[in-house]
Design a protein that fits this description.
Elements (H helix, E strand, L loop, with lengths): L11 E2 L2 E6 L9 E6 L2 E2 L7 E6 L2 H16 L5 E3 L3 E4 L2 E8 L11 H12 L3 H10 L8 E8 L2 E9 H4 L11
Antiparallel strand pairs: 1-4, 2-3, 2-9, 3-5, 5-8, 6-8, 7-8, 9-10
Amino acid sequence: MEAKSSVRPDRTAAELTIRVPGPFAGVEDLGFTARYPEQRLLEPLRDVALWIEGPASPMRRLASRLRILSDATEGPYRWTDPIQLAEEVIVLAFRDRSRERRPLAESPRAFSDYFANLVRPVVFPFLIDCVRLAHLRLADRIDIAVEAADWPVARFGFRAAQIVEPNGDDLLAA
């Protein structure tokens, strides 16, 4: 018996933006924005760009730490190499790897990874990897704002412990 989907593959999801101001402990004026491009459902996932902005000194420290993330290539996703556009701006992207080994139809694990990468906001793996791989300390409270086509959709607030435990110990402001 073949399962039928109620999702029409010709539908396109609008561009989505997630803003995270001040996620790192000690640097309130450093934040990032994840920009999801328009995406046709059930197509290979497009890269999600993260624009990180803040003061030059903590951004220099962050740039070296982000290279650690791009070197970690295990798992269903990877981070591209960070590109420093200016002293106060770095860009990197979240890249889906779920389809690299097998087509989704042949592998329940690949399908599970694809679905997780599709529905899980990229801000969470980014913050988790910043702590676990780069040992950065998150602020006690993380605020997240979701917008679609420049219209507010939702606002959330999380304690760092709700995202990842234990928190990192390296401060960007040091």
